[in-house]
Amino acid sequence: MYSEWASLQTVVRTEAAENDSVLAKFPADTGKEVALSVVRQLASNIGITHAPSPSHLITDRQVLWCMEVICYGLSLPLSEHDAIRDCVNIYCDWLSVLHPVANVSVPAPLNDDPNLYARKMIAHLHNLFVPRKGEVWPFLYSDLGADTIKRQAVLCHRVLRTLQQAAQLSTCMSRETWEAVLIFLLAINETLLATPTVKDDVGDQLCERVLGVLFEVWLIACTQCFPSPPLWRTLRDLATAWRHRLALVHQWNRVNLALTHKVIAFMYGPQFPKHNFYENEQQVPEGLSHEATAQAWFRFLHCIGSPVDLCRPAVISQTPKFLQYAMMSTDASAVDPSAHPCLTVLPTNFLRAIKGIATLVDAFLGIMSEPLVLSDEEVRKETPTPPPHRRPTKSFSVTSTTKVSGASKAALIGLSGRTMSTSGSSSTTNTMTSVSGSWDVTSSQALAPQRPKCNSLLHLFGEWLFEAAQVGTGLYATSNFSRKLSSDGNSATIGGTLSGTQGSDDGIASTSKYQAGRAMALATLCRIFCAKKTGEQILPVYYARFYLVLLHGLKLNDKKEVEESLVSILLNCSDLLKLDLDGVQILIPYILEALERVLPDKDLHVRSNVATQADLRKASINLLLSMVVLPLHFPELPIKELIGGRELERPPVILGTLKARIMNLLVNALQVESDPQNTHMLLGGLLVLIQEAAAVEMSESANIIQHPMIVPNTPDSAQGLFVRATYLVCHRLISSWKTDLSISLAALELLSGLANSGISDIEKVEWERGMKWVCDYIIFQCWRPPQYHSKDLHSSIVAAFSTVSAWVLAQPAVLRNRHSLHTLLEVVELGISGTKSQGKKGESPKMKDEKELKPVSMRVRDAAEALLTIIFEHCGPESVSSLVDEATLLKLSNPARPTTPDPRITSFKYFVLHNNTVLALLEDALGNHQEPQPEINVILRGGFGRHAWSFQLRQLPRHRSTTRGRSQNSPGRPVYTNLGPTPINTHHSYFPESVAKIPQCAADRSIPELYNENCDEMSAILREQCVLESAAANAPPEETLECTPPGLCAEFQTARLFLSHFGFLNKLEGGKSAVVSLDSKKEGFFRELEFLDKMEPRTSDTCHVFYVKGGQSNASDILMNSVSTF
């Protein structure tokens, strides 16, 4: 990417050498005295202990002279902490000149040219991060030294925080200043991080902080002043020397994910799903344009080189600092740079880097990623470094390229030896035993519809993922060691070293330490290829590389252990065979071999702690179910080998030969499965396999010429599999599954499906055994204690009755067996009454009229009655329909009736009742009744067959008749007695009678009498009414008439009486009648009746399924879809 641009590594590594002060030319005491006095005076002016005041420095010469002194003060020994602190405070205060409003204490020359002086101050601050010349190293490990370094780290944090604020707030920084800031950050990162890691040294403590500031400021620079290509190349070249640091991969993952969210947002819109778990978008400045975001994203993605190099200690250790350690070390085992103890962290770094790439892939696919699962020790290593005032600091051992040259070899050897022994004691050589990735969580999530194509993702990440997926497999053993490494004139030395250490690197990569990262890469590749859309094209080279790494990932080791790579493939490739991937059939034998290791083993030993055994078996079952029908539909398809070689030489595999292995694996997996959901899947797959096998065998038997016929009753035939499935499912149903109601329902559904599979030539005894086992299951469930009874339990009993019904309908011949019929009737009796008449051995039978009906539930009773109905329909050769038809009734009513024309046309009346029953009514008497009563003969055709009835209309029932054979004149009634009510004469008065007895006085006559014309008129009306009522009362009584019943009719419309008595003539809602008359004179009417009589008397329902196009809602349009368009 940057091959045509020069790297600035030399500028960065010589940053400290160019910042020597003029006071360094004088004796140390002289320079120290000058620095202490000047710095103390300047620090008193910036407002630390009191209010700030304007600076006395008014000319450039004054400022430059003071800056020389401050530069020297920053390089003072660590014991002069107060002076170093004052220098840091002064520069941090003066750097506010880059803010929109500078502090009051900033000298005037800095305000005139802020960028020039800011660059000088930033260069001088580098002295704070480098080791002191002539420092006594054992002092750093004393208690006094630890306290000193603690305060020193506080100053480093303040400098970094000041630069952050300046980058965020400044509006006047020029390109030169931005480059100076970035070069400064690169320089201090190179100083602190390029050396081999020493536990709790300043590089270990400040690693997370300095890298976070570097990436944050770099992103801000992309917004304000996009870095030049030489700076980007320098970042990449230097970062490759820091890859042994945990924090580098962590910060790299964070910035990549944050930029990826921004890229996805403007490429696919805000509706594209994002990772809600991560909160990294605040790291990206808001003002970053789309073009700058895309450029920064791609460049940051490649800033640490190939992440796969993290699994090659020989490559990671080929840096000047590691080579210097090897040359200075006196330990014979440390001659090889790759043997440094700090490189034991590479497996974790490799895993985290691949996990970061997997997270980016998941972001583009629109699925959520889970965080990485690490051990407690690794979590402590990952924790971002807090400021030293919140955490104790133990060491401050930093080496520098420019400073090491002046130190003696003895001093370096002593330092290295002591430091390495401390680090080695705290390092973990078994790092990856508890480190693993959570690559199984995203396999079942829905993908984003607008996700990018697989080719695009493979162009971006494919090289790294394919290379990481083949770590430890021996593939392309020399492909990556010829990669050109960026260093300062050391390419020849590094190349020679690589060629000599290639074998050892392969040995390290082949160990299990890096298998977690390899498993993560395999899982990511599986998710990419399983995200293929319909009709999407993937380059053949990607198919080839993908199948190659999967082939090696599916292999089992010598101990037949299930390694992490195999687990990751099975968890993330459950839909692999369901997609239209070119040439995917070449993996079927290897997948089947891996499944044969996983599924039949009940106590499987898995070398992974991120996936439960149930999840692994679920994914494996999905893969198995996706291949069960392939040998049946493509029996002659050859499977070619992906790789040739003596170790892989074997005859070509024909897909049809895998049928027996797949069937055996499915049955064996069902025998040991204990998870309910997985058991449901296996039962469904077993049913599909049997049904497909039966359909294929029937088609082959019908076309023997094109396809050879399968030999019946072989273990892999439909008949053999039917018997195996019946034995296995029934045995587990009455043993281990009888208490698991959900599995019981699935097993009963499979048994019902077996009955309806259409498989012939099954021995009768197999049907009888299967039905007997299901009946035993019903008996066990019905006899369970009351506290276990529930709706779910009753549902399983009802399902079992339905299964028995299906088996009876599929094989009615089992009813001819006396023992089978007895078992069925006992179960029906148990379902209807709740108990059996024949109890246990030694108990006397209980008569049915003595039993109390207490069924388990009403649903169970209905299911038992339905089974009893089916038994009655199939038990015996008799027809359930009546043998009487129209011809029989006409012959009985009038034997001399002419046969032509058809007498049924004139004699019978046909009606349709409720659109489901046909009535044929004959009003003629049959001639076998001596009483002259109206008669009607009815032939009823319905869903339960044909039935004949003869009705005689009588006024009284037979037992009420006084004379047999004759009709009464009157039905009789009670005697009528015309007795009226007894009249009661009463006198009504308005006042009590005592009022009339009171004599009147003169005062009573003082009130005038009431007189009005209206009163006279009312009196006249009352007199007339009294006359009329007295005349009516004195009239002679009339003679009472006796009611007698009418005489018997001689002519009847018996058909109308029959329909009226049963309410068929009443009109329904909407004005329609329940009965509709049929025209029997139409041609073909009686032929259709004959066809109706020939139908089975069982109710049958027909369901029509139509395919509906998008947007269709009209019935005619939907029906037209099924019309042929030829």
Task: Walk me through this protein's architecture.
- Helices cover 49% and strands 3% of the residues.
- It is mostly helical and 1126 residues long.
- Among the domains are: 357 residues, no CATH class; 109 residues, no CATH class.
- A hairpin with a 2-residue loop joins β5 and β6.
- α8 packs antiparallel against α9, α21 packs parallel to α23 and α24 packs antiparallel against α25.
- It comes from Ranatra chinensis.
Q: Tell me roughly what share of residues is in helical segments.
A: 40-55%
- Class based on secondary structure composition and strand pairing: mainly alpha
Strand content: under 5%
Query: In terms of per-residue confidence, which ranges show pLDDT below 50 for 5 or more consecutive residues?
Result: 136-142, 379-443, 477-510, 705-711
Within the largest sheet, what's the order of strands? 6-5-4-3-7
User: How much is the radius of gyration in Å?
Assistant: 51 Å
Write down the oligomeric state.
single chain
Report the count of strand segments.
7
Mean pLDDT: 79
Distance between the termini: 60 Å
Number of helices: 40
- Quick one: overall form? elongated
Largest sheet: 5 strands, antiparallel
GO molecular function: GTPase activator activity
Organism: Ranatra chinensis
Pfam families: RALGAPB_N
Keywords: GTPase activation
